[in-house]
Write a structure and sequence with these properties.
The chain is mainly alpha-helical. The protein is built from eleven helices and no strands. The protein folds into two domains: about 25-75, Orthogonal Bundle (Arc Repressor Mutant, subunit A), CATH 1.10.10.60; about 80-210, Tetracycline Repressor, domain 2 (Orthogonal Bundle). It has helices at about 1-15, 30-50, 55-60, 65-70, 75-100, 105-120, 125-135, 140-160, 170-190, 195-210, 215-220. α5 packs antiparallel against α6 and α6 (about 105-120) packs across α9 (about 170-190).
Length: about 220
C-alpha cells in the first residue's frame, strides 16, 4: 500500500509540474455543468476518499451522463486537483469579503478566523480533501497553503509597518496563525457542530493579543 501511494504521488507530482492546458471558454450551461461536477466531486471525495471514489459515482451525484465528465476533465486526478484549487480560491474570496470594512489588524484577525470557521462548517469535507492532496498531487497541496500564506503574510507585514502589531518574520507569523486556525477549526467546527463561532473567534483573538503570559485582566477573569 505504501509503495503504491508513493508511486501515485511521484507520478501525480511530475504531471502537475507540466504546463496546464488553457481553460476553454464555456457557455453558461457548460459552466453550470462543470460546477455541478466539482460540487459532486467534493461530496464523493470527502465521503469515499480519492482512491475509492469513481468517476461514475461523481457523475451520478451530479446527475449527468458518464461521458459528460470527459468533456470537462480528462481523468479523476484532474477534477481532484481542480477541486482543491477551487476550494482554496473560494476560501480566499470568503476571507476577502469578511475583511472588507475592518479597520484594525485585530479586527481583521477576528473576522478572518470567523470566516474560516464558517467556511469549514459549510464545506465539511474540506479537511479530508486537502489532506488527501498531499498523496494525490503534492504540488496542489503546497499551492493551497502557500497561496493562503502569501496573502496573509502581506497583510501582517503591512500591519507591522504601521506599528499595529509587533515585528516578526511575517511568513513565520502567517503560518503560525494558519496552524491555529487549522486545528481550532478541526476540533470545534468539524468535530463538533454547530460550533460557537463568535466565542471561539474571540478566544483565539484574545490569545493572539495577550499570548500566554498572565496579566491582571487574565487573573480577574479567572
Amino acid at each position: 500500500m505504501a509503495s503504491r501511494t508513493r508511486n501515485m504521488n511521484r507520478s501525480s507530482t511530475s504531471s502537475a509540474t507540466q504546463p496546464r492546458p488553457k481553460a476553454r471558454t464555456l457557455t453558461p450551461r457548460g459552466a453550470r455543468t462543470r460546477q455541478e461536477l466539482l460540487d459532486a466531486a467534493e461530496l464523493v471525495f470527502g465521503k469515499r476518499g480519492f482512491e475509492k471514489a469513481s468517476i461514475s459515482e461523481i457523475t451520478r451525484q451530479a446527475g449527468v451522463a458518464l461521458g459528460t465528465f470527459y468533456v470537462y476533465f480528462p481523468h479523476k486526478e484532474a477534477i481532484f486537483i481542480e477541486l482543491v484549487d477551487e476550494l482554496g480560491l473560494r476560501l480566499r474570496q470568503a476571507l476577502g469579503v469578511a475583511l472588507a470594512g475592518t479597520t484594525t489588524r485585530l479586527e481583521m484577525e477576528r473576522a478572518g478566523f470567523r470566516a474560516f470557521f464558517e467556511f469549514a462548517g459549510k464545506h465539511r469535507n474540506l479537511y479530508r480533501i486537502v489532506r488527501q492532496a498531499e498523496f494525490v498531487d503534492e504540488a496542489v497541496h503546497h499551492r493551497y497553503y502557500r497561496r493562503l500564506a502569501e496573502s496573509y503574510a502581506k497583510g501582517l507585514e503591512h500591519a507591522m509597518g504601521a506599528k499595529e502589531i509587533a515585528r516578526f518574520d511575517p511568513e513565520v507569523l502567517a503560518w503560525a496563525l494558519m496552524g491555529i486556525a487549522d486545528f481550532i477549526g478541526m476540533r470545534f467546527v468539524v468535530w463538533d457542530s454547530p460550533a460557537e463561532l463568535d466565542r471561539i473567534s474571540d478566544d483565539v483573538v484574545r490569545f493572539i493579543t495577550t499570548g500566554l503570559t498572565p496579566n491582571k485582566r487574565h487573573t480577574e477573569q479567572s
